[in-house]
Fold this protein.
Amino acid sequence: MSRSASNSSYLFVAVKPTGGKKYGLRQASTPGALAESLRRDSLLLLKTYSLPAWIGVESKVSLKQQSEINDQLAQLLTRGVPLVEALEVVAGSHSGPLGDRVGLIREQVAGGKSLAEAAEYLGGFDDVTISVYRAAERTGDLGGAAKELAETSRRQLAVRGKAMTMSMYPAVVLSVSLLLWFGLMVFALPSLGESLAQADIELPGASQVIIGIGTWMRDNFPIVAIGIAGVAAAIILLRKQIGAILMGVIRRMPLMKDVALAQESARFFSVMGALTASGVQLADALGVANRVIGNPKLSAQMDRMRKRLIEGGVLRYLIEEVTELPLATRRLLVAAERSGDLETTFRTLAGDMSDEVDRRSSRLLAFMEPALILFMFVMIGSLIAAVMLPLMTLSSRVGA
């Protein structure tokens, strides 16, 4: 049975408990499995329409969902619950596509596949989770591995949340500034320009330019609206490319590059801690963990270290060549390699880097606040100046 056959996409029509109809898109192995999935959500299936494979893009299991699944598995498996029964409990505690996916994994495991094979076969889980499952099934400590994965996911979510919090403040300030600027340009300045023209007030050159732009924007509002919509659509369609360009700029800016490096280091060491704790070989762990690094230089140095380690290089010497990492971090890794306690060091570094993200984010926000205020002053102040200069001229003429 092919993977697409095991998890196809269906457009369905179902009846709600209140009597109304519900339309939706859901993935299931068969129409019967879809009906069972909807029944768990108190929905009665009426019609199904199978969609082509190219339409049914398979969604990924989010990091938060993986954390919840692994947390539940850890609690059940460490108490002696068999894996198939544990998966059944997890599937029943989640509704919708996530519960369906776990239910399909349970069917695969009950049919003889390992948990890692089932998760990889059905897709949606990241390479770290699959690698840890595979290693843990060899060592027989799947419950401990699931607990380690849950802790790693929570740590990564915390780092991601700090990054989102740091980006929300400038995004809100810039959005408000742009809306205010647009409102003044389109609605306020053209009316003021017409009033001053009727009063026969000679406008300064800067005021004439700004008011002229605002008047053109008002008179050609449909064109302006289409242009704004086009820019917004281009941003949505090219968001990955734009994001890559922005990250490239951030990695070169003095304060932002330190925050970005701390975030990526926290993710990297968190993943390394989970992989090594599950018994994954160091070279294999480096290959998997290197995928969470977005910094091109750091990723290239880590990949070179992994290749030379496989060729027989000495780890303590190879660590010194990863110059993108801070010197203190390299010294700590070298000491851990000599003592043979890399696993604990990876966990310690993950926690330390998370704290470092906190400190550097606070420092960056303290710098960004006056910079954003200055930006708002330049944007809005230029418009206010364009308004105030003619008004002062009018006031002096009225006083005379």
The beta strands are 8-15, 21-28, 44-50. The radius of gyration is 29 Å. The domain at 63-155 is CATH 1.20.81.30 (Receptor-associated Protein).
